[in-house]
Amino acid sequence: MGLARFLDIAKLAALSGGPGFAQIAVTNDCNADCGFCNFARGKGIAKSSAPVNRLLRAIDTLHAGGVRYLVFVGGEPLVYGGLEDAISHTRDKGIEPVICTNGQLLHDDKIKRLKAAGLRNIIISIDAPDAETHDKNRGLPGLTDRIRRANKTLASSGMHSTASVTISRLVGDFKKLPAYLRDMGFKDVTFSYPLRELHSTYLSFSDSELVEYSKDELIGIFLGLKALKKDIKVLNPSAGMDEMIRFLKNEPSRFPCLAGYKYFFLDWNLDVYRCHYMKDRICAVEDFPGAAPIRDGCDICMIDCYRDPSVLQHVAVSFRDSVDELLHGHLGTAYRRLFNQNNYISLKAVAEEFGLVTRYGGR
Question: In what helix (H) or strand (E) does residue 147 lie, and over which residues does it extend?
């Protein structure tokens, strides 16, 4: 991280509780046919993609609204013709770009162009600890071999790939994942929590039996994933998985979701939503900087890409809230905002994320 970027992030932390991130589904087109996703090519949805020129202007607008991390998703983002221009523009604005892909189109020339555009981090979907199951679910024969080759090229190019594993029946024994993922060339993994319904335009969900679990089953899986941290770097914070266990037990949350305040979702129409789950859009992207932030203590879903970061960023937001209370002369409230157990847990989760504490088995 360069000095200018570090100072920018530090300024945002002090003034507004840290940087925001947005996910943009640049297209709903997908070349895969996954059994637990409604983007699947076999669903026959009408194809739509974000206009490239408007997308580039949208990136400017998101930066003005405090977004410093931008995740390009789909559908399959690598089928989007303007992706490299969007990544380059994102990097030029001082925003960190990331893509989530199934990996089928990650041939050597594509990786070279993505690196030239400024991409450093790629998230690649893995569905099972064996090639046959993974490739069959994706409907892409030979996909596992493609990902294995891509990881070698990515590593030699100085780029980083993270495995993204959706919790599904396809995984089977989660204990088999660490060795398999390392053999595939991954050093870390993030787990996507099973989604059976969403109310925005986003389609990465399904009522498939592959993602149907009882609450007790999911609690057992989360406990197992925490234990998995001793075998491979699991990016989902332990405190985030504890939060999901509380959710499944209908217990009060410790860390309200920051979607709508720090985190946002944009679809291929470049409409802004607080997250994938919510039905109502906030605004068109052009109106984003003037939109009122949403902080209503929401905890009605368990979408990992919003709930887990909310745990990590909780302490930064609390610090900003404490400063605000202090400036208004509310000394007692400022103290309570900053010095409490939830901030300690959040800070510990950040330390765990950066390997500063021992990972333990007991998002």
Answer: helix 143-156
**Tens digits of residue pLDDT in 311-336:** 999 999 999 999 889 889 999 999 99
Record the tokens describing residue 89, joined without a space. 């523009």
Q: Which amino acid is at 328?
A: H
CA–CA distance, 133 with 35 (Å, rounded to integer): 11
- The C-alpha angle 123, 174, 21, rounded to 5 degrees, equals 30
By the 8 A CB rule, do 232 and 182 touch?
Answer: yes
Concatenating the DSSP letter of every residue in 49-97 gives B--HHHHHHHHHHHHHTTEEEEEEESS-GGG-TTHHHHHHHHHHTTPEE
What's residue 359's pLDDT? Answer: 33
Band (pLDDT 50/70/90 cuts) for residue 50 is very high
Helix (H) / strand (E) containing 360: none
Q: Which two tokens stand for residue 297?
A: 């203590």
Within 10 angstroms of residue 237's Cβ, the number of other Cβ atoms is 26
Domain ranges, ordered by start, for the chain = 3-353
348 touches 238 (CB < 8 A): no
Question: Of 353, 19, 349, 27, which Cα lies nearest the Cα of 201?
Answer: 27
- What is the distance, to the nearest Å, from the Cα of residue 155 to the centroid of all Cα atoms in its chain? 21
Q: One-letter amino acid identity for 112? A: K
Token output for 353: 């994320």
Superfamily of domain 3-353: Aldolase class I (3.20.20.70)
Q: How many CB atoms lie within 10 A of CB 329?
A: 8
